[in-house]
Amino acid sequence: MVLAMAVSAVVPASIALPSLVGLLLVLAAVLLVQRVVLPRRRFTLAMARVPGPPALPVLGNSLILTGGQDEFFRLLKDCAREYGEMFVIWVGLRPFVFVQSAEACQPLLNSSQHIDKSYEYRFLNDWVGTGLITSSGSKWHNRRKLLTPSFHNKVMEDFALTSQTSVNTFIEILGKQQGVFDVLPFAKLCTLDIICDTVMGHHMDFQRNSNADYVEAIAEISGIMQRRFITPWLKPDSLFNISPLGMKQRKCVKTIHKYVDNIIEMREKELQKRAHMNGNVDIGCEPLGSKASKHRIALLDLLLEMRKDGLSDEDIREEANTFMFAGHDTSATAVSWCLYVLGKHPDVQDRILEEVNSVKSETPDGTLNFQATQKLHYLDCCIKEVMRLYPVVPLIARDLHSPLQISEHHFSIGLCVYIMQVRRGGTVRVSYSFRNFGMWS
């Protein structure tokens, strides 16, 4: 009513209602052009200067992104060879800039502003929530500070024997394989066993029960995430949620959360029972690494104890799911690359075996305990060299929240930049050779 009175006071009565509506539409169109069309035009013109495969209107490069994960990374490698240190791929109307030279990466990596992970990380939220790998800003800093003590050497030492048991099973299963085979699925089951022990304090023996619902759900949801990333029409939640993949994801998430929630409940009851019996499991009563504790402390135990620091039940579930996923997947990738590289260098294998036997001979029982592994210096150099050549995470994604210049290109807010193959492009190159051990000794 107030608006109508104001308009009637300003607009002469002789002006017809259709004219007033037309005037409002013109003003709306001007605002739309000023606020949306022109900024978008400037954005697309800036992106047009970045080389990349030809893109279609609206669809972008979606037609060449129809394959699986292998085809996607093969496309990135082909683009890197053809377009050099920087190129752009359009997924629908959203451009993704990939940089691979040390010079091009420097402005982004040196920035204290551009630290937020890409928009696509939110695809993980239904699964892992906003835990350590998906959160940003103050929540990430606070959570990281809170969880850092969980990676104390004493915690890892306590689970060394359990990890060795899982590795022995891994070796046994590999010994039964014949011919050429993919080691990664077996490595994932092994690391999942180890992570389940160390994070959840619960042994599941996934290596001998690879058809478990949790294992299948993890594998299926990982493929769904990758497909959603490269499919423009699956990015909006409203479309994804009604798609067949969205329905599959909800089923997988339900399976994963049910499994993790059950373990959290069982672990909490076990800790309460121990505390009631001997009062020796109140983690807060003993400093981390203290000999006073008779029980191994899993990450979940520490998370449950952190309730007094403000960690909610939802926070505990987030971090448990985060470490179960991120911990086993990256570790399995590292193990697989190590086995691949060592398989190509038998002489390095022989030297590692010689070092292992030498260290074992110095232990009282002739086995490798946690302290003995600290003396495997040559093996340590080999692992670091493999990580240099084959990082476990192929891409680092960052969203720009302020303008940034990379080389001669000026990028505006909202762009997602991916870092890849840093040591394999640009003027700064590092040897591809596996025998660069000098830098690690």
TrEMBL record:
Compartments where located: Endoplasmic reticulum membrane; Microsome membrane
Any one GO cellular component localisation term in the record: endoplasmic reticulum membrane
Keywords: Endoplasmic reticulum, Heme, Iron, Membrane, Metal-binding, Microsome, Monooxygenase, Oxidoreductase, Transmembrane, Transmembrane helix
Membrane spanning residue stretches: 6-33
Cofactor: heme
Topology in membrane: Peripheral membrane protein
GO terms for MF: heme binding; iron ion binding; monooxygenase activity; oxidoreductase activity, acting on paired donors, with incorporation or reduction of molecular oxygen
InterPro entries assigned to the protein according to its UniProt record, in alphabetical order: Cyt_P450, Cyt_P450_E_grp-I, Cyt_P450_sf, Cytochrome_P450_Monoox
UniProt record similarity statement: Belongs to the cytochrome P450 family.
Name this protein carries in UniProt: Cytochrome P450
UniProt source species: Cloeon dipterum
